[in-house]
């Protein structure tokens, strides 16, 4: 099929506009990456750096040699790993219980969960609850307030509704109770849903900023996002804590760019390992009839 002149002109304009938008979107990320690997002397010498003459790891070495940055990385890693596991356990178990039609009070529980989606208690009631539980200045407070979401529970419940009841009936004949059937049969079939929601939870926990700032008073317990915010506001490297005096600090801008790269790389590395579960169905070949 031959394209008319108008179609060719439209395609050319469309490609040009999308190319410009793509360049505008990608350039800030590219600039952050390039500046983070630029040699400090070259950065001080040049105004704008599009491609460094000499690549250097000085900013990364300085960040990892500080006292505060490795601690913040450890806190964020703890939140992203333990918090994600806790959130998946709570969300999947609650969604599975709500998907069973024999559960008494099922409709009432669904209404209460929908109510939490429509109406939020706000910051002050949440803070008072965390304080009464004695979790102020505890890392678990950040996990507790983000443990689950009514919207995620409803979505995962819909996924569990698609699992045939014949599978659980067959498991019951083999002597499995509800918990055993959920662990041995339902969860293995739920890997696509668990991978998708796990990625959502991991990104949310890794990017925790406001809750950590609200509930954590000790700077040693701050995650990477709170420390990064202090670095972006502070022109010096004083927010990084004690550093070996023999190490010459790089320019603050290269330190900030290196910190941004370290903050976004872990999530970018996790996504490819979970991507295959998004498009793959769990029920293929599980039951016929």
From TrEMBL:
It is a multi-pass membrane protein. The keyword Transmembrane helix applies. SUPFAM superfamilies: MetI-like. Keywords: Cell membrane, Membrane, Transmembrane, Transmembrane helix, Transport. It holds the Pfam family BPD_transp_1. Gene3D superfamilies: MetI-like. It comes from the Bacteria. The chain crosses the membrane at residues 12-33, 72-96, 108-127, 139-160, 181-206, 255-274. GO terms for biological process: transmembrane transport. It is found in: Cell membrane. Its main location: membrane. InterPro entries: MetI-like, MetI-like_sf. One of its GO terms (cellular component) is plasma membrane. Residues 73-274 form the ABC transmembrane type-1 domain. Belongs to the binding-protein-dependent transport system permease family. PANTHER family: ABC TRANSPORTER PERMEASE PROTEIN MG189-RELATED-RELATED, POLYGALACTURONAN_RHAMNOGALACTURONAN TRANSPORT SYSTEM PERMEASE PROTEIN YTCP. This is ABC transporter permease. It comes from Paenibacillus abyssi.
């Amino acid at each position: 099929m031959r394209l008319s002149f108008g179609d060719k002109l439209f395609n050319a304009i469309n490609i040009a506009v999308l190319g410009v938008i793509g360049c505008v979107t990608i350039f800030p990320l590219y600039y952050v990456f390039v500046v983070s690997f630029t040699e400090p002397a070259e950065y001080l010498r040049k105004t704008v750096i599009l491609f460094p003459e000499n690549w250097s790891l000085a900013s990364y070495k300085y960040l990892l040699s500080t006292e505060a940055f490795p601690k913040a990385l450890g806190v964020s890693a703890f939140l992203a790993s333990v918090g994600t596991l806790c959130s998946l356990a709570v969300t999947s178990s609650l969604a599975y219980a709500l998907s069973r039609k024999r559960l008494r009070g099922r409709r009432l529980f669904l209404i209460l969960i929908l109510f939490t989606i429509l109406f939020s208690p706000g910051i002050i009631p949440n803070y008072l609850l965390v304080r009464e539980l004695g979790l102020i200045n505890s890392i678990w407070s950040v996990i507790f307030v983000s443990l689950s979401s009514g919207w995620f529970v409803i979505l995962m419940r819909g996924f569990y509704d698609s699992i045939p009841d014949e599978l659980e009936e067959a498991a019951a004949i083999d002597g499995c109770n509800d918990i055993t059937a959920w662990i041995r049969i339902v969860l293995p079939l739920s890997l696509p849903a668990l991978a998708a929601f796990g990625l959502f939870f991991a990104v949310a926990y890794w990017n925790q900023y406001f809750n950590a700032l609200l509930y954590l008073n000790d700077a040693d317990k701050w995650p990477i996002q709170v420390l990064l915010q202090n670095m972006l506001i502070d022109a010096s490297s004083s927010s990084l804590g004690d550093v070996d005096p023999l190490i010459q600090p790089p320019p603050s801008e290269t330190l900030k760019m290196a910190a941004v790269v370290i903050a976004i790389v872990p999530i970018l590395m996790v996504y490819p390992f979970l991507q295959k579960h998004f498009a793959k169905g769990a029920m293929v070949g599980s039951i016929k009839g």
